[in-house]
Automatic annotation (TrEMBL):
Domain CBS: 256-314
InterPro entries noted in UniProt: CBS_dom (IPR000644), CBS_dom_sf (IPR046342), Diverse_CBS-Domain (IPR051257), DRTGG (IPR010766), HotDog_dom_sf (IPR029069), Ser_kin/Pase_Hpr-like_N_sf (IPR028979), Thioestr_dom (IPR006683), WH-like_DNA-bd_sf (IPR036388)
Superkingdom as given in the UniProt entry: Bacteria
CDD domains noted in UniProt: CBS_pair_DRTGG_assoc, hot_dog
SUPFAM superfamilies, per the entry: CBS-domain pair, HprK N-terminal domain-like, Thioesterase/thiol ester dehydrase-isomerase, Winged helix' DNA-binding domain
Family annotation (Pfam families): 4HBT, CBS, DRTGG
Name of the protein this chain belongs to: CBS domain-containing protein
Transmembrane segments: none
KW Membrane (keyword) present: no
Keyword Glycoprotein assigned: no
Organism: Fictibacillus aquaticus
Record keywords, A-Z: CBS domain
């Protein structure tokens, strides 16, 4: 039988897109406490089933498909621009395809407005009405209101009219930033992207006998299986080591390893690889918020995903990408060094390079050197960094990495940073090496 938490999530999924959800109403409908209802609604928000908007409330939205992650819903736009919904609340769940800045004459502006777009415009009531009739939502900048006729039209067409106190340029920048953040998230491969789903997963139940393990082993040639209870919650893992010398009629629950390492759908593949290598395991169960088994990850699938990540083109740049893009390789005989020009974006309020940028330069230099020696990637385990002298903007820093010790799984490096001939920073870095070969 499912828990109250799961029942609430199932109830939310059955609600019509665009409908309002309140903690009090959910608690009343399902006869649960308001605290239980609140926690379940927050979990639904994490899963992308609902969106909470100030001065509007919580509404049921359509979960976005992965290929559509770079698009925003109008509900998300309200949160991004700290907006107020003037009309068309029932359309907040819809997804915007593009946004148009209405800074031109009305006739020219309307050539770019189409269904599914967002028209960003100031106090131009005629533009508000024409935009709605063309199928576009309206974002009014400068904190202005609109006429009652426009609000009624928005309600009829189920297209949001949103007001924000920010100016047009700031609003456009904020929305662009949000889309860029979505693209960066899209590039990060998660467990949900590569897991073997439950309908293709072999698992054992607590009540099964060891004989069942032998049957699965003969069929799949695998030696490690997750163990679940009657509600499909993960309770353990059983491996070949657990059943050595155990009679075949023994119940699995008696021999399994309890409290196994698990990950959620939102765990990054890099974190999964780190756990598998550090703990020396070949399989990770993937669980839901209610600890139900939803799939598994194998070591081979994780390593293949890491290989593919290296080949993916960069769509949106993170700050680390911006910093490392400035690095230039210099060869001095057998030694490789790197130079980096310090731009204003890399500095702190005092005009000197920030500590975080220094750490990025250190780790990226180590990654580049270790990749020359050994295929694969690294996870930094420990860095001891000494910031010796400040470095101002528009200077060029030379990064000189040196391998101290290297093994199959670990690397230790000494990294020095120079400004001309002056030592400005020094680091000792230890990293765990991830071999991409399965």
């Amino acid at each position: 039988m499912s828990t109250k938490h799961e029942q609430i999530l199932q109830h939310i999924e059955t609600l019509e897109i665009g409908s309002k959800i309140s903690v009090r109403q959910v608690a009343k409908d399902l006869a649960v406490s308001e605290g239980t209802a609140y926690r379940a609604i927050k979990e639904a928000e994490n899963q992308g089933l609902v969106s909470t908007i100030e001065r509007v409330g919580t509404i049921r939205i359509e979960r976005k498909a992965k290929e559509n992650i770079e698009k925003l819903t109008f509900a998300e736009v309200v949160n991004i621009v700290d907006g107020q919904v003037l009309g068309g609340r029932e359309g907040l769940h819809k997804t915007l395809n593009k946004f148009v800045i209405g800074a031109m004459k009305l006739e020219a502006m309307m050539r770019y407005v189409e269904a599914g777009s967002l028209l960003i415009v100031g106090n131009r009531t005629n533009a508000h009405e024409l935009g709605l009739k063309a199928g576009s939502a309206i974002l009014i900048t400068g904190g202005f209101d609109t006429e009652e006729d426009v609000k009624k039209l928005a309600d009829e067409l189920k297209l949001p009219v949103i007001s924000t106190s920010y100016d047009t340029f700031t609003v456009a920048t904020m929305i662009n930033r949000a889309i860029s953040d979505q693209l960066i998230k899209k590039e990060i491969v998660l467990a949900s992207d590569i897991l073997i789903p439950i309908d293709g997963t072999y698992y054992l139940k607590q009540s099964d006998e060891v004989k069942k393990w032998h049957e699965l082993n003969q069929e799949t040639k695998h030696s490690r299986y997750p163990v679940v209870d009657k509600q499909m919650r993960i309770t353990g893992v059983v491996t070949s080591k657990d059943i050595i010398g155990v009679p075949v009629e023994t119940v699995i629950e008696r021999v399994m390893t309890r409290s196994p390492l698990t990950v959620t759908e939102k765990t990054s593949v890099a974190s999964c690889a780190h756990m598998m290598i550090w703990e020396g395991i070949e399989l990770l169960p993937v669980i839901s918020a209610s600890h139900k088994l939803i799939g598994i990850l194998t070591r081979q699938d994780v390593l293949k995903a890491l290989q593919m990540m290296q080949k993916q083109p960069q769509i949106a740049a993170t700050f680390d990408d911006m910093v490392t893009a400035e690095m230039r390789e210099i060869k001095e005989g057998q030694q490789v060094k790197y130079e980096c020009a310090i731009t204003p974006q890399m500095t702190n309020p005092l005009g000197t390079v920030s500590y975080g940028v220094m750490m990025t330069l250190v780790t990226e230099a180590a990654r580049k050197v270790l990749r020359r020696i050994k295929r694969g990637d690294l996870v930094v385990e420990n860095v001891t960094f000494y910031y010796i002298k400040p470095v101002q903007m528009e200077n060029i820093v030379t990064i000189s990495p040196r391998v101290i010790e290297m093994s199959r799984k670990f690397g230790k490096m000494d990294i020095e940073l120079y400004l001309e001939d002056t030592l400005v920073g020094k680091a000792l870095l230890m990293a765990q090496l991830i071999d991409h070969r399965p």
